[in-house]
Amino acid sequence: MKKILSALQLARRAYMPKLPKGLHGAIEVIEEGATEPAANKDELKSLFPNTYGLPILKFVEGNEKKNIPAVNVGILLSGGPAPGGHNVISGLYDGLKAFNKDCRLYGFILGPSGLIDHQYMELTGDIIDEYRNTGGFDMIGTGRTKLETAEQFERGLDIMKELGIKALVIVGGDDSNTNAATLAEYYMAKNAGIQVIGCPKTIDGDLKNEMIEISFGFDTACKIYSEIIGNIQRDCNSTRKYWHFIKLMGRSASHIALECALQTQPTIAIISEEVEAKNMTLDDLVTYIARIVAERSAAGMDYGTVLVPEGLIEFIPAMKKLIAELNELLAGSQEFAMIKRSAQRSWVISKLSSENAAIYASLPERFASQLTLDRDPHGNVQVSRIETEILLSSMVGIKLGKWKEEGKYVGKFAVQHHFLGYEGRCGFPSNFDADYCYSLGYTASRLVASGKSGYMATVRNLIAPAEEWIACGVPLSMMLNIEHRKGKDCPVIRKALVDLDGKPFKTLASQREEWAKGNAFVYPGPVQYFGPSEICDQPSKTLVLERS
Ligand code: FBP
Questions:
Q1: Do residues 283 and 159 both lie within one domain?
Q2: Could you tell me the distance, in angstroms and rounded to a whole number, from the CA of residue 382 to the centre of ligand 1?
Q3: Is the pLDDT of residue 71 over 80?
Q4: pLDDT tens per residue, range 273-282
Q5: How far is the CA of 164 from the centre of ligand 1 (A)?
Q6: Residue 147 belongs to some domain of the structure
Q7: CA nearest ligand 1 atom 12, residue
Q8: Domain presence at residue 56
Q9: Counting Cβ atoms within 10 Å, is residue 476 exposed (0-12), middle (13-18) or buried (19+)?
Q10: Which of 170, 174, 384, 387 has most ligand 1 atoms within 8 Å of CB, for mutation?
Q11: Looking at the structure, do residues 437 and 416 belong to the same domain, yes or no?
Q12: Domains in the chain: how many in total?
């Protein structure tokens, strides 16, 4: 069947992403000093003897074109989709072809499982052209299989040997890049002749540190969510009868909620990291929201918006303890899986410590059972399936009901719920993400050509015009630390949470009281692709505040 493309799709296909100067011309790489991780140095050195301490690499514009032999390269996408993934692939493809037109690129299907199960396709020019500047990961698909066992690594090696692949690019978040670090070490230790290179992806924006300014996809996803929040706010301000509780993706950190709050100025924005820092209970949080609802009601405003970060529940200290105990209890528990649904609640209560059992028993049935849903392959609670926005609004409703009985509140509290997550993960990448991702893919090609392994492709100086961005290779080993996961200590890339001393949060904190009192709503409108640079090329507010 012939695919029908919209006019915008056709126009986007023709868009040529901007590249930093350092990626023009011949390959020239500068090695900076040796690196080390911020913590657990000795343990990490013994776990990663071959990839520990590598230098940071910087790519600069080169003059002398060297002859580089053709290589075959594999790429896989891992975890949730993020706008721009196809541009990483097209940047990698174009970068490889620029240094030798006989290079070939293979995509592993549906993420890491494609590598293990030998499901792949060759990515030719025709296929690449069809997906340039499009959203989604559907060119080759993605998955969450965790690459962790020697058997999986060997299965990967078999297929890569068969296809003559010399380098593998893994596009993913903190967990997937942790896998990339382990795989790089494994192949280097056995001299397998396979380079492994990571690439920082996740709409959550929590794969960042002094070397990674932002993960790709965050910019577009936040712009899409902000457009929708703006539309909801305009509806809210038009009908003046609802409180909208809007849950926003971000499995752990609240970067998305914070960025969207800065873009849209909602009535209330919850930031999980603040809830944890202030040691707030669920009741504290409910009281905080109910107080604002009641004050607005007294001023004649029975409406407003509340942004709720998806990962909130794990940041309420008492809930965090409960979830940690549930994780240990349910990890590989055959017994729990065999129990009838109706008996699961009492089984869990009987196994938990008395403190956690009491909290668990106090939760509404539906919510309690959501806390026991399967963990993902990395051991994470699937917070996208937990209806925190409904829990909060119903508890606020109960509190307001009590205040009504006590004569402290007379308003109306009518609620609408929204969950913004999947709507933004496959959107057309913004110009920022289109350029950034293409540059990341191109940088990965330079790492391949330079024979490097155990590196992540990164691009820095992102608030400057794209020409001035800096393409780098950062050792994966320097981003690792040891954390307790699924009942054991393991090396993982540290997740970046919202910094409560950072400018983005401080900006929110300095303005939110005003937003709570009046109508400060901002309606940012849709992402723009063609037009003046100040409308089309602006990076996220978080990035600008953090880096300016
Ligand atoms: P990644 O970290 O893999 O990029 O995924 C992010 C995310 O979109 C989270 O915000 C969300 O909790 C999760 O994926 C949902 O995943 P799934 O697609 O498995 O439902």
A1: no
A2: 8
A3: yes
A4: 999 999 999 9
A5: 32
A6: yes
A7: 251
A8: no
A9: buried
A10: 384
A11: no
A12: 2
